[in-house]
Amino acid sequence: MLVRIHIGRNRLPAALAATRSMEAIERIPQEVFRVHEAVSTLGVMRALENDPLLVIADLEDLQDCPKMSRPALRTALDSLGRDGAVVVTSGQFLAEPDRWVGEALLACGLRVGVRYLPPRMVMITNYCGGVGKTTLSLALARRFRQASGLATALVEAGVGGSSLKARLPGRHVSLYEVATQNAEAGQWEDVAVYPADNWEADVLAADERTPKALQDIAHGHTLTVFDTFPTNPLWKHIVGMATDILVVAAPRQDSLVQTEAVLRRLKDETAALHPAPRVHLVLNQVRTMGERLLLAGQLSTWIGYDERRANHLDGALTEPLLNLVYPGWGKRKPRPKAKQKRNSRKPAEAAKCTAL
Fold first, then answer.
1. Closest Cα partner for 207 from 172, 178, 230?
2. Signed CA dihedral, 298, 303, 304, 305: sign only
3. Please, where in the chain does CATH 3.40.50.300 lie?
4. Which of 35, 81, 222, 325 meets the CB 3.0–4.6 Å disulfide criterion with 150?
5. For residue 225, which of 234, 217, 233 has the smallest C-alpha distance?
C-alpha cells in the first residue's frame, strides 16, 4: 500500500535496519521513512541517536564490537520499545510489514498509519444494560470515519428489538436482508450500518451464509464495530472474528458484578483462539476519582460522564477507545519550535542597549 506523507524529507520519521535481510530492508517504504542501516552492535547504538520509530534488528547476526556488548544493546532496544518505538526482527517484520509500519507511524502521531494496518474488528459488550454500549459503538464508528476517512461499519448483535433502528433516522436495511438477500447496507454519517433484532439474529445464527456475510463486512472495512450482547445468537461468530473486545462497565454495583461474569466467560472462550483478541476493560460514565479505583489494576481506560456529549454521540468521548484499538492514535505530531526573531537593530544600537 502506497501512502505519501507530505512533509519534508529531513522531517520524515527514522527507521533503522540492523539486519542482513535485504528483503526486509526493501520492504521499508522509502517515501515514509528515512532509513538508516547498521551491521554492528556499535553501529546500531550510534544509529539510535536518530530516534528511530521502527527498528528491524537481528541481534545475533550483528558484528560484535568491544565497545558495545550484545546484552547492553538488547537492553537499549527493550527500553526504546517501552518508550513507544516498534522493535521487531526481520522475520516478524516480513510476516506483517504493513502492521509494523502502521504502528510506527501512529507512534509518532501520524494517523495516516491506520491506512497500513490490517482491518480491525472491535466488539463492544457486557451483560449489563445502561452502560453505554450502543452510544459508544455509534460514536466510535462515527469518530473513526470522520478522523480517518476510511471505510467503517457498525453491526448490531444486541438483545430484544433493534436499538440502532430506534436511534437512527430513516429506514435502514437490516443485517438479515444483507446476509440473505444481498441487499446493500444503509449509511449513517458515511458509516455502513447493519441493524438486527433478536429474531433476525436467531435466524442468521442457523443460516450457513451468515459467517461469509460477516467476514465480507469485516474485510470490506478498515474498522468494523460490533455492538454485541452476550446472549445474542451471533456472539460466537463475532468473538471468533474480533481483534479487540471492549468490555464497557459503569461504576454501579450491578454493572461490576456483570462485568466480572463476562470477563470470566471471555477468558475461557478466547483461550483457544489464535491469535486471541485483545480484551480491554473500559469504565464509562465516571464522575469522581474514587469511582476509577473500583476496577484498579484491571482498567484499560475510563471515560468521564458527559450527558451532553453522549446525547450528541460526540466522537471526542471515544478517543480513549481508539487509542486502545490503534495504539498511538491519541498522539500528536510535535509542533515545530518557533523561530527566534533576529535582532533587527544595527550592531552599534545593540551594543548600546547591552551597555545600558
1. 178
2. negative
3. 119-325
4. 222
5. 217
Rounded CA gap, 40 and 49, in Å?
15
In the block, residue with C-alpha cell 480513549 = 320
Backbone angles phi, psi at 298, to 5 degrees: -110, -20
pLDDT on residue 332: 58
Nearest to 113 by CA among 32, 52, 57, 48: 32
Q: pTM for the complete prediction? A: 0.79
Q: How far apart are the C-alpha atoms of 331 and 252, rounded to whole Å?
A: 31
DSSP state letter for 238: H
CA distance 87 to 78: 8
Report the pLDDT value the prediction gives residue 10, as an integer from 0 to 100. 56
CB contact at 8 A, 50 and 14: yes
How many Å is the maximal CA-CA distance in the chain?
Answer: 90
* Size of the chain, expressed as the number of residues it contains: 356
What angle (nearest 5°) sits at the alpha carbon of residue 318, between those of residues 178 and 4?
Answer: 80
Distance between CA 30 and CA 10 in Å, rounded? 12
The CATH number of domain 9-114, selected from 3.30.2390, 3.90.1010, 3.30.300, 3.40.50:
3.40.50
Q: What's the Cα-to-Cα distance from 111 to each of 11, 21, 147, 311, rounded to whole Å?
A: 16, 28, 9, 27
List the grid coordinates of 162: 433493534
Strand pairing class (54-57; 86-88) = parallel
Provide CB contacts within 8 A for 268, sequence distance 6+.
none
The answer to whether 313 and 142 are in contact (CB under 8 A) is yes
Residues in CB range of 337: below 8 A, 6 or more apart: none
Taking phi over 0 as left and psi of -120 to 50 as alpha, with beta for the rest, 203 belongs to alpha
Amino acid at 87: V
Q: How far, in Å, CA of 342 to CA of 307, rounded?
A: 50
Coil, strand or helix: which one is 249?
strand
Class of domain 119-325: alpha beta
